């Protein structure tokens, strides 16, 4: 670009519905972008996991092998594997291309709420209702976890991995950050059951949403609260929250059928995106672009900053 | 052999005959080397080659017959041909045909097959004997059998049998009947001639011709084949000797002559002439001298005619000697003749010995105690298993309570069998039906109140920090004296139990004694209320001081060991409630992670930060760090600590006391074979696979030949130690093995009568094997941020073996750590199995061979085994063989697997 922008553009929000995908797999429990944001994974309550193309909204593959509804999924950095967890207490490592179960990891004593690959997809981390986080090795043939993190006093509702850190949120109202490099565990007391935790993109902050209808942004190193975002309704559902790709906004699902956008710094509500009448179950922000996925009932909606061309829109709808 | 006639047809021609020499033929020139040709058996010319090898052409251009020569065998996958038998290359596969020829290196000529040879071995029999030897009473039983192998009848013998020959008969022309008796009875010399001698036959033939009575012919007598029947059962020398004819076995060949001559002379020297038998009237001594010139008295050769020397041994000095001489020998069964003999003894009488005139002194043989019918020699371990079944009590607690004589463990018979010392005075009183004693229970109560006060204050100031409330006079007395271990542990028990709300007493350690249990529960209740003096108040003031102090210790120990489950497990559960009274609220246990109230207040005030932040040490798994591509934050403090300590201690002591006065050769063969196989497999949760395979083969061959003074001690110690460590890391292994072996042998001999000879054989074989594995591996990680970390992981395995092998049938496994100098144990988890086996094996062999010598063989095995087998075999030889065998096997296996991942 020859000339610099005369002034920075105001950050755009994904407020235009690009397309709606009817997943045909019962209620969609979670929706996730893959590593590069070109595909999405939808976790259905009909025990299936589906892979979709985001841009075209077409189904690419259905992964069936779980014994109960799929609760969370993640894709590896190289798009070669998927992992998913289910109410059937198992974690499954899938081969993307063949759709076959590469490994079925049993060990949790309760339904598995959340699952994540680490950066190199050598470890699958899964948090479960049994209050443990289990670290599964994808490289070896062992079926036992490498390590079981049983510090949580209650169900582990959410976990995220960033580089050498593991962030877990538990129903016991604590956000735990395991620092592998330092060998330390930092516990932040939030008091209300945590529904979702996130790292900020810069890795300096943690975001946690809890059942007191509040999303809090905490400083990672000290645990001090940097921001508190409220206004939405999160009382009984395990709903997701996230940060936008450039850490400008805080997003959260709400039980009133909206996705709330708060300005991160100011803490003011930027946008109240109406998704539907039901509860917004899950959301996922594109890793790089301004694109948002929301899941409500059996549908996944793709939101973008700019409305797409009409013919594509027509195709999608 | 050629017959007597000198006909040419009887010659056997070997080789190529030389050409007949003609006198006027010129001398042939020798064929030069290059013109010499050699053909193989198929007529093909072969080429000489090799000055030194001297052989023929080795195939195709001096290769192995193919153009390629020795082609290396290529890999052939055996996947598809699993079933096919694998072809094992034998040496014959690489040999030429010539090698199998008559002059080859592996000639395949016609040899006597096993069927035709007399020394045929049967594999099945050997196998059966080996199996039998396992259960044999005497461990070295098979050795004797192997030394003396039974002869097999060859085809020749069987042919002879088909032709009518019977064993025991001689081979040759048949003889007349009366010839022999005539000679024996009327012989002036009366020599008992060895049978089968041609000279005797000639003489018999002459007698027969002279008498003319030989119408019935008999087979000539023959040397009785030695019938080596393996001895079965427990027998002494010659107890059920089945020599078919007495004495014949010793007179059957020059080999025996040599043996008897030498060994007898040696024994004569050793034992003096007192042992010399009198069967041949002192002639035996001359046999020795006669044999000194290597001409056996009974040797069967014609040289005797040449060196015709009269020998006294040929003369029978007794009438009615070995044979009846009726010529029926070989026809009838040998038992016929044995019956006519002295019925007391059927065996062979040793040379130089006679049968005793008076019977040997009757030795009282006490029968072994008869075992109860339902006796089962099963060792009952300490009732750790039973304890474990009791309401989830930890073994340590159970052990502690058992040691402290808590009545938790149910013992057969109840407390009445535990002895009166296990009852307290009130129990004894209840048993006896006495009334409770009236009056003061303590001496202090007799004191005046001010004196008591003074004493209390004195002791209070001098001793403990335990406060003594004055309101409880008897308890306060005890509190003053209470300085035992319970005093130290009581505060701990208090802190453990303080504030515990659970009322259900799942573990009742003193269930046997209800009053004691009630006191214990009272004590626990007071502990829960935080009462520091709960212990004293809950004790029975009517008990004696000693009983009180004992109970104090027991209570404190039990309360500490069985602490309320404050672990994380119990924190996760709340007690179930009755549905009627369920008000929807759940009793949440007290939070352990700090003061929730403060944090909650901080949260309410939105003061996140220091107040809400807690930081703990966290130990990520090493493999997890590796997978995350970061260095282990605690390299020296690995999350997995494997400590394998194997301590095997074998101690063996042999005390052989041989007291023997007998003259014949005693062979004691003692074989130890101890095979110790220890396989330890540990699979860690990190992908470590440790496979330890210890194979110990101790072979101890111990041969005593006391008559000839032969002591053979053989030790074969095979130690196979294989370790397989499968790590996912590269590591450098340093194996250090130290073998220390100490052997001490002390030999002495005891001969009681003529020679007092003490044979004390103390055999201590201490084998110390220290195996130390030190695995040091260094991992260097470079993570994504450019950090480069190096950490060193040290993995140390220590295997220490101190030991000696044991007897094969006697095993002592003492799983204890009594040997303080050799055992190594770590603090965390020690699995201790105590097992003491006593195995007493007493053998007294009493056997009356002749009256001149008694042979007592006392074989005593003393082992530490709880199986008590007592074998008393009594047969007296005056050979006291005391074999004290102490074998202690200490096996301490400490396996510590510490997984540290909790923060503190």
How is this structure best described in words?
The complex is a heterodimer of chains A (317) and B (904). Chain A has one helix at 310-316, and strands at residues 16-22, 28-33, 39-44, 48-53, 59-64, 70-75, 81-86, 90-95, 101-106, 112-117, 123-128, 133-137, 147-149, 156-162, 165-170, 174-179, 184-189, 194-199, 205-210, 214-219, 225-230, 241-243, 249-253, 258-263, 269-274, 280-285, 291-296, 299-304. Chain A has 317 residues and is mainly beta. Chain A has a 4-stranded antiparallel β-sheet, with no helix packed on it. Chain A has a 4-stranded antiparallel β-sheet with strand order 2-3-4-5, with no helix packed on it. In chain A, strands 6-7-8-9 form a 4-stranded antiparallel β-sheet, with no helix packed on it. In chain A, strand 20 and strand 21 (225-230) form a beta hairpin. The longest helix of chain A has 7 residues, at 310-316. In chain B, strand 7 and strand 8 form a beta hairpin. With 904 residues, chain B is α+β, with helices and mostly antiparallel strands. In chain B, strands 6, 10, 11, 12 and 17 form a 5-stranded mixed β-sheet that branches. Helix content of chain B is 22%, strand content 20%. At the A-B interface, strand 13, strand 16 and strand 17 of A face helix 20, strand 5 and helix 21 of B. Strand 17 (184-189) of chain A pairs antiparallel with strand 5 (613-617) of chain B, so a sheet runs across the interface.
């Amino acid at each position: 670009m020859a000339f610099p922008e005369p002034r920075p553009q105001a950050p755009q929000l994904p407020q235009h519905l690009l397309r709606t995908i009817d997943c045909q797999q019962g209620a969609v429990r979670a929706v996730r972008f893959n590593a590069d944001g070109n595909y999405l994974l939808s976790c259905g309550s009909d025990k299936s996991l589906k892979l979709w193309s985001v841009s075209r909204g077409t189904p690419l593959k259905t992964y069936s092998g779980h014994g109960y509804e799929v609760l969370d999924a993640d894709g590896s950095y190289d798009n070669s594997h998927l992992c998913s967890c289910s109410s059937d207490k198992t974690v499954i490592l899938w081969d993307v291309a063949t759709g076959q179960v590469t490994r079925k990891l049993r060990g949790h004593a309760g339904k598995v709420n959340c699952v994540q690959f680490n950066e190199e997809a050598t470890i699958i981390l899964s948090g479960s209702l049994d209050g443990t986080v289990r670290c599964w090795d994808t490289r070896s043939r062992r079926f036992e976890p490498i390590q079981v993190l049983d510090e949580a006093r209650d169900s582990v509702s959410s976990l995220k991995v960033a580089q050498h850190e593991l962030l877990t949120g538990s129903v016991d109202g604590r956000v735990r950050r395991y620092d592998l490099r330092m060998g330390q565990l930092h516990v932040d007391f939030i008091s209300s059951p945590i529904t979702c935790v996130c790292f900020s993109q810069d890795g300096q902050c943690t975001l946690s949403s809890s059942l007191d209808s509040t999303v809090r942004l905490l400083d990672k190193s000290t645990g001090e609260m940097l921001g508190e975002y409220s206004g939405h309704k999160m009382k009984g559902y395990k709903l997701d929250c996230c940060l936008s790709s450039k850490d400008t906004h805080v997003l959260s699902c709400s039980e009133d059928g909206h996705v709330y956008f708060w300005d991160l710094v100011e803490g003011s509500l930027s946008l109240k995106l109406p998704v539907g009448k039901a509860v917004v179950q899950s959301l996922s922000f594109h890793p790089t672009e301004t694109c948002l996925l929301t899941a409500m009932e059996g549908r996944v909606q793709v939101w973008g900053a700019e409305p797409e061309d009409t013919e594509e829109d027509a195709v999608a709808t | 052999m050629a017959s007597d006639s000198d006909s040419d047809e009887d010659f056997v021609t070997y080789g190529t005959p030389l050409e007949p020499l003609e006198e006027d033929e010129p001398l042939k020139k020798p064929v030069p080397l290059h013109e010499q040709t050699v053909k193989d058996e198929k007529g093909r010319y072969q080429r000489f080659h090799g000055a030194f090898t001297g052989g023929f052409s080795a195939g195709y251009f001096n290769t192995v017959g193919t153009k390629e020569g020795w082609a290396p065998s290529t890999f052939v996958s055996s996947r598809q041909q699993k079933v096919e038998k694998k072809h094992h290359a034998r040496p014959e596969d690489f040999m030429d045909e010539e090698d199998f020829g008559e002059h080859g290196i592996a000639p395949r000529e016609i040899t006597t097959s096993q069927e035709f040879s007399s020394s045929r071995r049967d594999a099945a029999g050997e196998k059966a004997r080996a199996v039998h030897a396992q259960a044999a009473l005497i461990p070295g039983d098979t050795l004797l059998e192997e030394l003396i192998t039974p002869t097999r009848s060859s085809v020749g013998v069987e042919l002879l049998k088909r032709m009518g020959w019977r064993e025991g008969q001689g081979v040759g022309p048949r003889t007349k009947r009366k010839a022999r008796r005539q000679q024996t009875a009327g012989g002036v010399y009366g020599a008992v001639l060895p049978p089968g001698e041609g000279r005797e036959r000639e003489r018999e033939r002459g007698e027969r011709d002279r008498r003319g009575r030989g119408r019935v012919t008999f087979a000539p007598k023959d040397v009785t084949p030695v019938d080596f029947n393996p001895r079965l059962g427990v027998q002494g020398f010659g107890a059920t000797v089945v020599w078919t004819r007495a004495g014949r076995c010793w007179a059957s060949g020059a080999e025996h002559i040599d043996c008897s001559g030498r060994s007898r002379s040696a024994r004569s020297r050793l034992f003096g002439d007192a042992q010399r038998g009198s069967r041949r009237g002192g002639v035996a001594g001359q046999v020795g001298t006669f044999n000194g010139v290597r001409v056996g008295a009974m040797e069967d050769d014609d040289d005797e005619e040449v060196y015709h020397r009269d020998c006294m041994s040929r003369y029978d000095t007794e009438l009615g000697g070995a044979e009846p001489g009726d010529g029926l020998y070989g026809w009838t069964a040998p038992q016929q003749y044995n019956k006519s003999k002295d019925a007391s003894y059927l065996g062979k009488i040793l040379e130089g010995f006679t049968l005793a005139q008076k019977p040997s002194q009757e030795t009282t043989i006490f029968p072994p105690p008869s075992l109860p019918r339902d006796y089962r020699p099963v060792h009952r371990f300490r009732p750790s298993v039973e304890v474990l079944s009791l309401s989830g009590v930890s073994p340590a607690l159970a052990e502690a309570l058992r040691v402290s004589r808590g009545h938790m463990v149910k013992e057969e018979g109840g407390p009445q069998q535990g002895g009166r010392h296990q009852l307290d005075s009130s129990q004894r009183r209840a048993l006896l039906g006495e009334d409770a004693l009236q009056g003061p229970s303590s001496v202090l109560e007799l004191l005046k109140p001010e004196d008591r006060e003074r004493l209390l204050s004195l002791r209070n100031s001098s001793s403990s920090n335990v406060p003594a409330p004055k309101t409880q006079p008897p308890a306060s007395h005890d509190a003053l004296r209470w300085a035992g271990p319970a005093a130290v542990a009581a505060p701990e028990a208090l802190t453990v139990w303080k504030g515990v709300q659970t009322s259900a007493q799942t573990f009742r350690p003193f269930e046997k004694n209800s009053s004691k249990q009630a006191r214990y529960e009272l004590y626990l209740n007071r502990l829960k209320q935080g009462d520091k003096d709960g212990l004293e108040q809950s004790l029975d003031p009517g008990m004696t001081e000693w009983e009180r102090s004992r109970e104090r210790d027991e209570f404190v120990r039990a309360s500490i060991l069985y602490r309320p489950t404050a672990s994380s497990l119990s924190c996760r559960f709340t007690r179930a409630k009755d549905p009627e009274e369920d008000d929807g609220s759940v009793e949440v246990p007290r939070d352990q992670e700090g003061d929730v109230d403060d944090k909650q207040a901080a949260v309410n005030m939105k003061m996140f930060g220091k107040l809400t932040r807690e930081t703990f040490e966290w130990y990520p798994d090493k493999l997890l760090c590796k997978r995350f591509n970061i260095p282990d934050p605690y390299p020296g403090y690995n999350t997995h600590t494997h400590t394998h300590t194997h301590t095997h201690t074998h101690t063996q002591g042999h005390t052989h006391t041989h007291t023997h006065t007998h003259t014949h050769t005693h062979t004691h063969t003692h074989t130890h074979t101890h095979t110790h196989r220890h396989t330890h497999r540990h699979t860690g949760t990190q992908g470590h696979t440790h496979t330890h395979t210890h194979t110990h083969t101790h072979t101890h061959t111990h041969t005593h030949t006391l008559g000839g003074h032969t002591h053979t001690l053989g030790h074969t110690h095979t130690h196979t130690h294989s370790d397989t460590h499968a790590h996912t890391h590269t590591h450098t292994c340093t194996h250090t093995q130290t073998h220390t072996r100490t052997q001490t042998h002390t030999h002495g001999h005891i001969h009681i009568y003529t020679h007092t000879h003490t044979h004390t054989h103390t055999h201590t074989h201490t084998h110390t094997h220290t195996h130390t594995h030190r695995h040091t591996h260094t991992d260097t990680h470079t993570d994504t941020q450019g950090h480069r970390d190096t950490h060193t992981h040290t993995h140390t395995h220590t295997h220490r073996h101190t030991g000696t092998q044991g007897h094969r049938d006697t095993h002592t496994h003492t799983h204890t750590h009594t040997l303080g100098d050799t055992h190594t144990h770590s603090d965390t988890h020690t699995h201790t199995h105590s097992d003491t086996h006593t195995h007493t094996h007493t053998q007294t062999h009493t056997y009356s061979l002749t009256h001149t010598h008694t042979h007592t063989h006392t074989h005593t095995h003393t082992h530490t085994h709880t199986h008590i087998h007592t074998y008393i075999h009594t047969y007296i030889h005056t050979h006291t063989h005391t074999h004290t065998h102490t074998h202690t096997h200490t096996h301490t296996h400490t396996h510590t697997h510490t997984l540290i991942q909790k923060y503190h």
